[in-house]
Design brief:
This protein is mostly beta strands. It has helices at 2-20, 23-26, and strands at residues 29-35, 44-51, 58-66, 76-85, 88-98, 111-119, 125-133, 141-150. The protein is globular, with a radius of gyration of 18 Å.
Length: 159
């Protein structure tokens, strides 16, 4: 009986740990989604995003599809996203998009979704999002989109 209880507790803890990083993708309400194309240098943007305090907290997600090129398996792209208002950066962060395929399953997941930024919008207005590659692009991405989710749930901060 004790082993069953311990296994149940362990399963719940693991599920909470895995989902803790997903709140920007799975919680809240989609405010909008917009297709974006990469520039020749691999950057995306600028993308104008209208935010307001009543939307907070907000998640800004990057969604894309990669191909099934075996040469891209095990590779990734690294980016820096920055959100600015009136020329001042209000949030920035780095993120990676990897090719999710394997030798046995070259396509991997159809879409890759990554939360780039979680922000509290201090004032209503247009914000500008820029996404710059931090290294040469290794994975070809198509059907790229920026998704904004409002009123997401966030994991409690660790003391």
């Amino acid at each position: 009986m004790n082993n069953i209880f311990n296994a149940g507790v362990l399963s719940a803890v693991l599920a909470a740990f895995v989902l803790a990083g997903c709140e920007g993708v799975t919680t809240g309400e989609r405010d909008f989604q917009i297709p974006v194309a990469a520039s020749e240098d691999g950057s995306f943007g600028p993308v104008l995003i209208k935010l307001s305090p009543d939307m907070s907290p907000v998640a800004i997600n990057f969604k894309a599809q990669h191909g099934d090129d075996p040469a891209e398996i095990g590779k990734w792209n690294s980016y820096r996203a920055s959100l600015s208002r009136n020329g001042s950066v209000v949030a920035s962060g780095s993120f990676n998009i990897n090719h999710s395929g394997t030798i046995d399953s070259p396509m991997g997941a159809t879409y890759v979704t990554q939360t780039m930024l979680k922000v509290m919008s201090p004032e209503t207005g247009e914000y500008e999002l820029h996404i710059l590659p931090l290294k040469p692009v290794e994975v070809t991405l198509t059907h790229t989109e920026i998704e904004v989710r409002k009123n997401i749930q966030t994991a409690p901060a660790n003391p």
